[in-house]
Structures are given as structure tokens and as C-alpha cells.
């Protein structure tokens, strides 16, 4: 028996999300009184692989076969399924993110497992197996029971956090063969090396209230002052107007984010936008309209013109940063 | 080109959510139901493609009870050729996917489209499950899609960029914002024609549910927003540091 966690990598590196997944898997394993096996696909250094054992992985399976260099949902699903079978996994843990969303449902079919996506906490009981997930785009939670012997859970990023739990580093190579697929990756277009809105701990987000694309420089400045863990986000109309790239669009039809701090600048707080931000720990709203619905979702608010408030806020943040 | 578009019948994006039956069931009373926004865009793109390729057909499909028929009629009004309702109340993604795959096995669609996720349970599972059940390739979260006669060219979002993938038919593609610019709004003529287009009701296959929702709850209400005068931004920074302990 085991809990198998699939830890994806980005350019052969793990990131905070990977450690969060292992932390979660390790807590689930504790509930089930079993071991955690992490599966990595790619040519990662021993040091990278070993980092997973810092969060409770009892064993790291490493699939380094170069045939698996490019992501393919059908082929990755086969390899992950074989690893789950080899390790007699009773629970599989995935991230609820872009790439594993393509794989986990396939694994669920292959293993005839019960799959709950978007989990936000540990199972509240293991027999019967019951876990809570977000539903209705963050407007509600649903408690879901899994009726199958094999369970698959996908975890929302930043819902659980990190739990350091150092174990001796044990690794094993794992191999698999490619399933037949006619899909061909033609091209990869990397956007600038900027951090994704999903990974950022601080998001400085702007809406139509900023009036034009150039004014987002004020938000870029704030983000730069906060440093490497911050980035800029936006509302749907801002992306539609092409003031900002679509990859920054937050909300029901964009990204669902969960940063520590979310600045909503010139954002009205439409229900579809709120759907993407309600998991933020702290929300600050800056808006000229005292009745804007964003103030109902916010923890701190300033009624004022963003174009006047932001330069002052940036100055104040700079002073604060230079002191701390 | 023979295209199947799987549509979820979901509460409007502005709906206030509540529950009945000991919080077990979503309260449909007085709610407006719509085609899920991801599927609406996928359907729009399919219609654009079919209009440019003579002989193409688009079937709109929903797994659901009779109450979903107005949603399917809307898909017909937008431009789908025909519709199928699989007469089963959806409870679990695997169940829905198996119902659809069962039908797709016989129908030989070139492309099966779904949305990235339905906005009720945000599962994001059905499309890829159908692909696996049929043993075909897939792309999920497509932001652009070209369906050429021999192959599909699909752009999908990845962490930190985009990927362009070529697929052979048959294939499954799950669409999201970007796949079409704006959802198509049915014209009067489309609405008139939709009334006479075929809407077939198909019996479901018998299946167990792999998962079941026991209960719902609403998120904790937020405390009141602390207002800070616009000329006291230093105070905001102090509160974020000392009170919220977030910076
Ligand atoms: C199916 C569907 C899905 C959708 N999905 C999303 C989604 O995923 N994400 C999303 O964001 N939206 C989504 N929307 C759109 C959503 O309904 C709103 O239209 C949108 O969120 C509003 O964006 P906004 O706040 O930038 O603009 P507005 O609503 O126009 O708000 C601008 C705000 O700026 C304030 N303002 C104006 N000038 C200033 C100033 N100088 N300083 C400070 N404040 C100022 C105004 O008081 C106002 O509150 C969706 C809509 C639909 C129908």
C-alpha cells in the first residue's frame, strides 16, 4: 500500500507547489498509516529529487527515459498508472493545475478510481473516504464521498501549505514505454520569464478603472518593490482590451488564484472576478466608488483614484522595504 | 467534419448559490440556467469552422433530465445541427464521461469538444475521461483551434507560455476562453429553426457513481472591510505589516 504523488517539474526544477503536494500526500499517508511515493518524470538532478524527501516522501521514483521528454497526456497517464500499480497505491495525489488536469482524469479511467478534483483540505474521514472540494467557482464547498477502492485527489494550489518533514532520501529509477499517440508538439512559445499569477504570493491586479494600458506601469512598480514573489494580474475586460496578456486574467473564466495578498486596483468586484480571488488570504481594494462590490470581499479598502493613490502607495512601500 | 460538442447545463455565472434537502442539493428555484461559458465558446468556434466546411455537422449533447432541453435548444439556435440528451441526472464526472463515450463509440465523431470545466462542480474531468475511454489523443484548455481536413491544430496554455499541438482525428479537445472571441448570440432565424431541429433523447447505460456529494456549505462570511483614508497610505502599509502580518 502507498500514497503516490505525481510531482511535475518546470525545466527540471520543482517549485513550491511540488513540495505542497508532497506535504499533502504525506499527511494523507499518515491518516492511512502508509508510505508516500513521489513520481517524477524527467531528467532531474539527485539534489532536486532529494528535495522531495524534505517534505515526507519515503521514496522517489524517477522516470528518466528520454522518450518522455515532451508532455503527452495519453503517454504520461500510462506511465503514472503503471507506477501506481507497481506501488500498490490506494490514493493518488495530483495538482489541480493545467498539465495534471489533462492526465489525472485519464489515470482515473485506467484504474477505475474515484476522482475528486479541487480538494482544499485533508480527507475528513478515510472510511468512508470523504474530502472537501471547492464548487460553484468558489461560491461553495462540497463534501464528496469516494465509493471506489482507489482514490484520486487533486489539490488546489496554496490550499494546504508546506509541512517540512525530513525523511532519508531513497530513490529508484522507474521505466515505462510510450503508448501510441498521433499527437505532435509543433511549437512551444514561452512568455517572458515572469512568474505565473498562480505561483505569485502577492498579486497587484488592475481593472478597467486604470483607464489605459500605460497606467499598469504603476502596478508593475508595486510588484517590483515587493520583489520576485509578486506579479501583475488583471480582470477579463482588461485582457479583452489587450492592455494585458490573457495569461494574467483572473476569475471564473481565467485563473483561480490564492495568493497571500491581492491588490484589486480599479476593479469593480463582479461576481465572476470574485470567483477567482476569494481564496486570497488578504484582499486590498482601491476604488473611486465607495459602493463597489469589491469592498465586500476586501479586508482593507481605500476609496480614491488609483492614479493618485498608487504612486503614493509605491513610495510608502519603498520606504517600508528599505527599512525592513 | 463530424463534431460533437458536450455542453453542461449550469446556473448563470451571476447566480447566488444556496442549497436544499439538508444542504445536499443545489437550489434550482428561481435560477437561470445557461450553456457553460467554456462550452459556449467551444461551440461558437465549432460553428465558425462548420460554416466554412460544407457537409460538416455539429451535434450538441447534454447528459441530464428534461430540464436541460432549453439549453440544448439554445445550442441549436446558435447553429448546432442536431442535439442529443442522454436521460440521466449527472452526479459524477466518470459516469457522465462513460455515458458520452458509449454513444461516441457508435457515432464516429471526428472531434469531440467539451469546455475546460463546468462551472458548477469545476471538475475539469469529463473531456479527458472521454478521450481515455475512446483511446484517443486530446488537448485540454485549448485557446485556439483550427480543424483542417486531415488534422487539427490546437494551441493550449501551459505554465509560462503556449504550446501548439497537432492532432489526428478522432480527438478530444477541451476549450476555454480564447478558442472563440465572443460567444455567438443566436439570431431570430436561428431561434425559429431550432424549434424544428432534431433533439433526440437517449436512454442512459446503467452505472454506479464513483463519487457522490454528501453535503454543501457556503464559505465563511468575510469580516467588514477596514477603510483607510486615501491620504494615509502609510497606515495601509503599517496594517499589512503589523496587523495582517502579510508583508
Ligand atoms: C460568463 C462570464 C464570465 C466572466 N468571467 C470573468 C472573469 O473570469 N474575470 C473577470 O474579471 N471578469 C469576468 N467577467 C466579467 C465581469 O462580469 C466584469 O465585467 C469584470 O470583472 C469587470 O472588470 P473591471 O472590474 O475591470 O471593470 P469594471 O466593472 O468596469 O470596473 C471598473 C472599476 O474601476 C473603478 N474605477 C474607475 N476609475 C477609477 C480610478 N481612477 N481609480 C480607482 N478606481 C476606479 C470603478 O469604480 C469600477 O468599480 C465575466 C463575465 C461573464 C458574463
Looking at CATH, the homologous superfamily of chain B is HUPs
CATH uppermost class of chain B:
Alpha Beta
The CATH architecture name of the largest domain in chain A reads: 3-Layer(aba) Sandwich
Largest interface: A-B, 98 and 81 residues
Q: Approximately how much helix is present in the residues of chain B?
A: 25-40%
Helices and strands of chain B: which structural class? alpha/beta
- Oligomer category: heterodimer
* Total domain units of chain A: 2
Q: SSE order of chain B in H/E notation?
A: EEEEEHEHEHEHEEEEHEEEH
Summarize the structure in words.
The complex is a heterodimer of chains A (324) and B (247). Chain A is α/β, with parallel strands linked by helices and 324 residues long. Helices cover 28% and strands 27% of the residues of chain A. Chain A folds into 2 domains: 2-173, Rossmann fold; 202-323, 3-Layer(aba) Sandwich (Rossmann fold), CATH 3.40.50. In chain A, the strands form 3 sheets. Chain A has a 7-stranded parallel sheet with strand order 5-9-4-1-2-3-10, with helices on both faces. A 5-stranded parallel sheet of chain A has the order 13-12-14-15-16. Chain A has a 3-stranded antiparallel sheet with strand order 6-7-8, with no helix packed on it. Chain B has a single domain (2-219), classed as Rossmann fold (3-Layer(aba) Sandwich). In chain B, helix 2 (69-78) crosses helix 5 (188-194) and helix 3 packs across helix 4 (126-134). The interface between A and B is large, with 98 and 81 residues. Strand 8 of chain A pairs antiparallel with strand 14 (211-217) of chain B. Flavin-adenine dinucleotide binds next to helix 6, helix 7, strand 15 and helix 9 of chain A.
Amino acid at each position: 500500500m502507498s500514497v503516490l504523488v505525481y510531482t511535475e517539474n518546470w525545466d527540471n526544477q520543482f517549485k513550491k507547489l511540488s513540495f505542497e503536494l508532497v506535504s499533502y500526500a504525506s499527511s494523507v499517508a499518515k491518516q492511512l498509516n502508509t508510505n508516500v511515493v513521489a513520481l517524477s518524470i524527467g531528467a532531474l538532478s539527485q539534489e532536486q529529487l532529494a528535495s522531495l524527501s524534505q517534505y515526507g516522501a519515503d521514496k522517489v521514483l524517477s522516470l528518466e527515459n528520454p522518450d518522455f521528454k515532451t508532455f503527452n497526456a495519453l503517454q504520461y497517464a500510462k506511465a503514472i498508472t503503471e507506477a501506481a500499480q507497481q506501488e500498490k497505491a490506494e490514493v493518488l495525489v495530483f495538482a489541480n493545475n493545467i498539465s495534471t488536469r489533462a492526465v489525472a482524469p485519464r489515470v482515473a479511467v485506467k484504474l477505475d478510481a474515484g476522482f475528486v478534483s479541487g480538494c482544499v483540505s485533508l480527507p475528513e474521514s478515510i472510511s468512508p473516504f470523504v474530502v472537501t472540494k471547492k464548487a460553484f467557482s468558489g461560491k461553495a464547498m462540497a463534501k464528496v464521498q469516494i465509493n471506489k477502492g482507489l482514490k484520486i485527489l487533486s489539490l488546489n494550489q496554496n490550499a494546504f501549505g508546506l509541512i517540512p518533514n525530513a525523511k532519508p532520501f531513497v530513490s529508484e529509477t522507474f521505466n515505462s514505454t510510450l503508448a501510441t499517440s498521433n499527437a505532435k508538439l509543433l511549437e512551444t512559445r514561452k512568455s517572458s520569464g515572469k512568474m505565473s499569477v498562480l505561483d505569485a504570493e502577492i498579486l497587484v491586479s488592475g481593472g478597467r478603472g486604470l483607464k489605459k494600458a500605460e497606467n499598469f506601469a504603476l502596478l508593475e512598480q508595486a510588484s517590483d518593490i515587493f520583489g520576485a514573489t509578486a506579479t501583475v494580474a488583471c480582470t477579463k475586460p482588461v485582457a479583452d482590451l489587450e492592455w494585458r496578456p490573457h495569461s494574467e486574467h483572473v476569475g471564473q473564466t481565467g485563473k483561480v488564484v490564492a495568493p497571500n495578498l491581492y491588490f484589486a486596483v480599479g476593479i469593480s468586484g463582479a461576481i465572476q472576478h470574485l470567483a477567482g480571488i476569494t481564496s486570497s488570504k488578504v484582499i486590498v481594494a482601491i476604488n473611486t466608488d465607495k459602493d463597489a462590490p469589491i469592498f465586500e470581499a476586501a479586508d482593507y479598502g481605500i476609496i480614491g483614484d488609483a492614479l493618485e493613490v498608487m504612486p503614493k502607495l509605491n513610495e510608502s512601500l519603498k520606504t517600508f522595504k528599505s527599512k525592513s | 467534419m463530424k463534431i460533437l460538442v458536450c455542453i453542461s447545463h449550469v446556473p448563470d455565472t451571476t447566480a447566488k448559490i444556496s442549497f436544499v434537502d439538508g444542504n445536499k442539493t443545489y437550489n434550482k428555484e428561481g435560477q437561470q440556467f445557461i450553456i457553460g461559458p467554456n462550452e459556449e465558446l467551444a461551440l461558437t468556434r465549432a460553428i465558425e469552422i462548420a460554416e466554412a466546411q460544407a457537409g460538416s455537422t455539429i451535434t450538441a449533447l447534454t447528459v441530464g433530465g428534461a430540464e436541460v432541453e432549453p439549453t440544448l435548444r439554445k445550442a441549436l439556435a446558435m447553429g448546432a445541427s442536431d442535439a442529443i440528451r442522454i436521460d440521466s441526472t449527472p452526479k459524477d464526472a466518470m459516469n457522465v464521461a462513460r455515458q458520452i463515450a458509449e454513444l461516441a463509440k457508435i457515432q464516429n465523431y471526428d472531434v469531440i469538444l467539451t469546455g475546460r470545466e463546468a462551472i458548477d462542480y469545476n471538475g475539469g474531468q469529463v473531456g479527458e475521461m472521454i478521450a481515455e475511454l475512446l483511446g484517443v489523443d486530446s488537448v485540454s484548455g485549448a485557446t485556439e483551434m483550427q480543424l483542417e481536413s486531415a488534422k487539427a491544430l490546437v494551441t493550449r496554455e501551459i505554465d509560462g507560455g503556449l504550446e501548439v499541438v497537432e492532432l489526428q482525428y478522432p480527438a478530444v479537445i477541451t476549450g476555454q476562453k480564447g478558442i472563440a472571441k465572443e460567444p455567438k448570440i443566436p439570431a431570430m432565424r436561428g431561434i425559429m429553426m431550432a424549434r424544428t431541429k432534431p433533439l433526440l433523447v437517449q436512454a442512459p447505460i446503467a452505472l454506479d457513481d464513483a463519487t457522490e456529494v454528501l453535503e454543501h456549505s457556503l464559505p465563511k462570511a468575510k469580516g467588514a472591510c477596514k477603510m483607510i483614508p486615501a491620504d494615509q497610505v502609510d497606515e495601509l502599509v503599517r496594517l499589512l505589516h503589523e496587523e495582517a502580518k502579510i508583508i
